[in-house]
Amino acid sequence: MPFLAPLALAGLAFIPLIVAFYLLRLRRTERTVSSTYLWQQLVRDLEANAPWQRLRRSLLLILQLLLVAVLVLAAARPFLERTAGLARDLVLVVDASASMGATDVFPDRLSAAKRAAIEALAGLPADGRVSIVAAGETARVVANEVTDRGRAADAIEGIRLSNASGDLGDALKLAGALAARARGAEVLVVTDDASRHVPEVRLAVPIRVLTVGRERRNQAIVALAVQTGAGGVKRSLFVSVANLDTQAATRRLQVLADGAPFTARDLFLDPLTRTEVVIDELPQGTAIVEARLTAVDGAAGPTGPADQLAADDAAWAIVPSDRLQRILLVGPGNVYLQNALSLLPNVELYGVSGADYAKTTGLEKFDLVVFDGFLPPTLPDKPILAIAPPRSSALGTVTGTLTGPYIATPAPDEPLLHDVDLTRLHVATAQRLELPAWARTVIPGPKQVPLLYVGAREGLPTAVLAFDLHQSDLPLQIAWPILVANLSGELLGRDASTLHPIAPGAPVELLLPPGSAGMRVSAPDGSATELVPGATGASTVTFVGTGQLGVYRAEPIPAAPEPLPSGATPSPAPSPSPSPSGSEAAAAVGPVRFAVDLFDPEESNIASGDGARLAALGGPPAAGGQAGIARDEWWIPIALLALLLLLAEWLVYERDGARRIVGALRSAATLRPFRRGRA
Amino acid sequence: MSDPRAEPTAAEAPARHDLLPAAVDPTVFDEAFLRQLERLMLVTRKAVRGGMKGVRRSAKRGVSVEFADYRNYTIGDDLRTLDWNIYARLEKLFVKLFIEEEDVTVHILLDASGSMGLGAPDKLLFGKRAAAALAYVGLASYDRISIAVLQGRVARRYPAVRGTGRIFQVLADLSSVKAAPGPTDLAACARHYAAQLTQRGPLILISDLFDANAERAISELAGTRCEVAVLHTLSPDELDPPLEGDLRLLDTESGSGVDITADLATMDAYRARLTAWQAGLDAVATKRRAAYVPVPTTLPLADLVFAELRRRRVVA
Lengths: 679, 316
Description:
The complex is a heterodimer.
Chain A: H1 14-25, E1 29-33, H2 37-57, H3 59-76, E2 79-83, E3 89-95, H4 109-120, E4 129-135, E5 139-146, H5 149-157, H6 168-179, E6 186-191, E7 207-211, E8 219-228, E9 235-243, E10 249-257, E11 260-269, E12 273-279, E13 288-295, E14 314-318, E15 325-330, H7 335-342, E16 347-352, H8 354-357, E17 368-372, E18 384-387, E19 397-403, E20 429-434, E21 439-444, E22 450-457, E23 460-465, H9 479-491, E24 508-511, E25 516-522, E26 528-531, E27 540-543, E28 550-558, H10 582-588, E29 592-596, H11 601-604, H12 612-615, E30 629-633, H13 635-653, H14 655-678
Parallel strand pairs in A: 3-4, 3-6, 6-7, 15-16, 15-17, 17-18, 18-23
Antiparallel strand pairs in A: 2-30, 4-5, 8-9, 9-12, 10-11, 10-13, 13-14, 19-20, 21-22, 22-23, 24-27, 25-26, 25-28, 28-29
Chain B: H1 12-19, H2 31-38, E1 53-72, H3 84-90, E2 94-102, E3 105-111, H4 123-140, E4 144-151, E5 154-157, E6 161-162, H5 167-175, H6 186-196, E7 202-207, H7 214-222, E8 227-234, H8 236-239, E9 245-251, E10 257-262, H9 264-287, E11 291-296, H10 301-311
Parallel strand pairs in B: 3-4, 3-7, 7-8, 8-11
Antiparallel strand pairs in B: 1-2, 4-5, 4-6, 9-10
């Protein structure tokens, strides 16, 4: 039997050491005899046989010697060789998306996938290397070219379930890049293959797929939204529940308002269908709505137990604030703008011409000032939406006029363009503006000249639209009211009510209120994260720890009252107008809440596939590749044997005590029926 | 010449008990036992020359009543020895020769090495008693008794005595024998005694023979042409040692130690070795025409003398 660490066999030298200790430990009784003549004649035989006779007599010593031998054997790491089933260089991709939390296999798919992955590593050649990619909300390398199976197993065990939708495409790309470093590498994917979406990636290396999962019993809340009626007072809850199973099911929908049960409905869900539920008249003052899907107790029909994926059985929504917000529209009058702004919920719209703006009092009562083709000499300390600014100002520098600018491709993840279709937008003329440092481009024009940009100007949300609405067909399109709604959400303090549900793992940009040094974000489990801006004068911080499902709470961290030395945490730029101190202003701003929900029918569909589609993305096996040699080490059973020997040695050493214990147990066993008899 | 079998005088009687060694149990040598001993005689298979008149056939021709042979008369012969009947018939003078009866010297060699001082019962004490009994047998047979104690490398001889009246001296001599500390070379002692030996006769060696040169000692003694009898005295704890466990055995003579683990196998090996050793000694003794008598110290003295030694033709 070969050994991985043959030098450890030198530990066998402990055996004669133990024997020597044993012999030295021997206390001989001296006995005077008339002559040792005959004994001396026997002494050679005695010397030759006495140690072994003692060994035969001393079970304790024999156990100790066996224990040393077994421990040394285990340390030498004996192994058996066999043909390896995997390539020498392996990239292991473990799917950790939300669907891997399904419990159709015990205890869940991810745990089964980990077990399968660790068992698969046994097929790695002796000199094999494995890189491990965890495919959660993002593809992440958790081990890179590891040769130690123990470290690889630890890395696999360290993979945690993500509540995000998994995208194996990124993980496969990463795995392909890792596999490209070595010749003859292969990719092993452990997944439930539940996604119907086939990643758009092709790898040059072969892909093997290990699938986990058997069933698809799952019902999910795939949408939850709070809608405000036209009057701005009535709020209704919209819930969409999908039955992704091939059998009908009855589930109970519970709705909680601020944690208190509000209503519950039993839903009969046809297979593979979605059921929409509208619940009117949420209680006044409700801030958070939670919807839960539970099993129906005692109901007739195919209720069954709770489904096999818990992540999509709960959803949260933030109720828009009831506070009435005032918008001041300054300009010559624009019916498109007036209509769009008046349609916003909880908004009171006021209008004033540019000439009368200087006479306007009570500007502090407005939450947003819209300048349409007009700019005052002094900008108010309020969020501003400027449309076609006529001149350069703190809002931006006007360098000229654009004629017939085309619309460039905007950023795909721009939140302000959510559900906004700009493909049919045409603009006749627009102001040529330079993008200020505090802003980001929302609608780009030719040569990256912005047509719409937003940002936090001295901590104040500001948006600038470069063209007059009359110089485009934007007001005539469906995108216009949606864009105004999105802009109002950004400019009116970016209240949680304006935010869409956030997908797990997605970053959240939080606006820093004036006078705040940062934001403290509390996760649903109570853990808090403090965010400070990365640069002086930054107006936003980005929170990326949205891995948990639930409601997050973000509070501004008041700035220190004393002036901070240079290089310390940046503070907002001082306001030119009289205003409350920074810390007071930050304290005056309430917390911001946002909800993180799965809302992914694709991920909620836990019907596992056979992995053939993923395997087809790989290339052919490397030509001329030779199967490696895998090693099966034997140290585990040997170590168990050592433990048994240790236990036996302890029992022999403490045999008197063990006998007493056994005797006490026997006596107790004999006393028990006697007590019963007396009773 | 006084009768050697004469009883001690009344004046000697008190001294008999005074001289009786305390180490020798007086009850062992009671009157009945002594009477029985007087009926025995140490066997000598060959006629040897003696020193004084006795009751044993001597190699010499003498004046006893037992006819031995005739020879021609030569001038100077005692005319009283002429066989006149032969002269009457043959008219030739023949002289009648008679067998001479002399005493023999009985050599009793007692090993008084350190090893003899141990055992239960004491081997040296047992040896003293056996020596005393055999000495009394010899004294009662008008033999000369020569006792020697083997210690160190020498044989310390006591003056030879003759006549039963000297038994007390023998007992006194024996009672003074103590086990000697230090090693004893049995072969050297035997060689030393053989060098001093002038008169052949029965030679009885009483020893435990715990010596690597024990066989050479027997050969040395047999080389004196005495009729050697070896009383191999061993105590019961030497025949079957009551040992158990891990022991360091200390030699009482040399002080050297031997580490053993006394288990069944070891004891079996010891007993086998003891049997082989005794068989080897017996073989050597037989080869040298000596009698080898293994004697456990638990054997009663009467059984030794009247049974064991008679069976071995040491006494008759």
